Amino acid sequence: MFDMQNDEVLKIQHLKIQLRCMTIFRELLERPVLRRFLELADRLQPAGRGADRDPDQADRACAATWGGDQAGTLEAGGTVSSEGTAGCGGGAPARSALAAAAEAYAAFVSELYAVSDDLSDHIRELVLADENPYILKSCAADLSGSPMKDSLYRDLQALQRLCSLRPENVREAVCACFFNGDPRSRKAVDELFSAGWNTSVCDLRALYEERLAGLFTRGYGMFAKYHTFVVNDGEIVPVKYPDPQTLAQLADYERERAQVIKNTQALLKGEPASNVLLYGDAGTGKSSTIKAIANEYRDQGLRLIEVKKNQLYQIPELLETISRNPLKFILFIDDLSFSSNDNDFAALKAILEGSVTGRSGNLAVYATSNRRHLVKETMSGREGDEIHLNDTMQELMSLSARFGLVVTFSKPGKDVYLNIVRHLADEYGVKQDEEKLFQKAEAFAIRSGGRSPRVAKQFIELVKADIR
After folding, report:
1. How far apart are CA 442 and CA 418, in angstroms?
2. What is the H or E stretch that residue 303 is in?
3. For residue 411, which phi and psi values (nearest 5 degrees)?
4. Average of pLDDT values for 362-368?
5. Averaged over 191-219, what is the pLDDT?
6. Mind listing the pLDDT tens digit for each residue in 114-123?
7. Across-strand partners of 2?
8. In this structure, how many other beta carbons lie within 10 angstroms of the beta carbon of residue 294?
9. Which of 53, 110, 348, 438 is found 20 to 30 A from 194 (Cα to Cα)?
10. 438 contact partners, CB below 8 Å, separation of at least 6
């Protein structure tokens, strides 16, 4: 029995060494669960049979550590191995070493509980989300004959062993390390190390090879898990709960949306794609169109990064990272307009023209605006004191011309507006006499400043809530 339990200690030590020698997934060692496991493994060292141990001293140490029923169990014959204690605690008293091991175990389980109760699932998520040297280089080169592939498989083998670690394995190791495998200590160990976790079947190597095969549609890292992002302090940050808008939920404006969809499909195919400006009246579905397209084509490798106008100066620093990514990106700028002396004007101009670095072939800029000419002008500005004022004015007015595709979304007429109301009523399950519904919708539009898809949606939501 002792040899079997001591074997569990040796297995944990071997796993610890394998993990600490990882090269491809080395950054995972800084993740809380793995870091806590390594700390636990440091507390569990192989023990001999403890022929020279002092049973009385060990019993007193355990009694001080546990007390109560556990101490009584040990007094009946189970003892802490002084030799095992020395191995686990560097010569520290049995109580200190055992307490330290129990604390390390609790810290490991606590970190796991913070994210999952299944160790296998958590390791799988870490592996598939990791942005490591192998997956980054795989975007640009075939690594099938590279020594990096051997390192990849060795790392996956170590992580696979960690996936299979069960609470019973650790408890057996504790019995061997501190009690020389004495079976009478098992009840006390089970109670002190009572927290547990689940494990599940997963083949990390097969899953990772599947991820590599789908690199150009699934991506890697956070881009494999999320499809909508924002920019925060110069960093791309995922949006965990993006707008679920779908193309099927959008009524009318088929011709306008078809142009944007066709351009997006060209981007996904690696064909030349234009930067797109969607301009027109407020509430006509410009932003909804872009979000719905991002949702529609996410499984084909499309990702959306929303950027505020005042963040445009940060974009050039991010373009190099995006350009190396195998996925396709829409850089989304909502409600775009500039004043004539706006520094962000030059930043957008550089992005649209590619500046010195050149615009990446996997990126297109999609912007919305209520203005056809994106730079606000004043009469005093037209009468400025610049010598070459005409050249300056032409540059300001031509910003929209730098978008290869300009799509106009105009306010709907009565028929289109009521058709949108009908479409939304069906979608929301609103059952009312159509003539009366249309009368209310028209009245609501008058009070809301005019007809638009947004006004139609607001009206139907109020009707659904029994407010109208």
Report:
1. 8
2. strand 302-306
3. -60, 140
4. 93
5. 95
6. 999 999 999 9
7. none
8. 24
9. 53
10. 418, 421
Lookup result for tokens 């898809």: 453
Query: What is the side-by-side order of every strand in the sheet holding 235-238?
Result: 235-238, 228-232, 302-306, 328-333, 363-369, 276-280, 405-409
Q: Give the residue among 379, 377, 385 at the shortest CA–CA distance from 345.
A: 377
pLDDT-derived band at 398 (thresholds 50, 70, 90) equals low
Task: For residue 429, give the 3-state DSSP assignment.
Answer: coil
Residue for token pair 């007429």: 413
pLDDT band at 316 (very low <50, low <70, confident <90, very high): confident
From CA 160, how far away is CA 200, in angstroms rounded? 11
- Amino acid at position 33, single letter: V
Burial (Cβ within 10 Å: 0-12, 13-18, ≥19) of residue 144:
exposed
Tell me the residue ranges of DSSP E strands in 346-404. Answer: 363-369
**Percent of the residues in the chain that have a pLDDT greater than 70, as a whole number:** 79
CA 108 vs. chain centroid, Å, equals 23
Q: How far is CA 48 from the centre of its chain?
A: 47
CA distances from 464 to 59, 351, 437, 444 (A): 72, 44, 12, 14
Place of tokens 């289109």: 416
What does the block give as tokens for 189?
A: 């160990």
Distant-in-sequence, close-in-space partners of 461: CB < 8 Å, separation ≥ 6: 428
Please say whether the beta carbons of 264 and 302 come within 8 A. Answer: yes
* CA 431 from centroid of its chain's CA atoms: 40
pLDDT of 103 higher than 60: yes
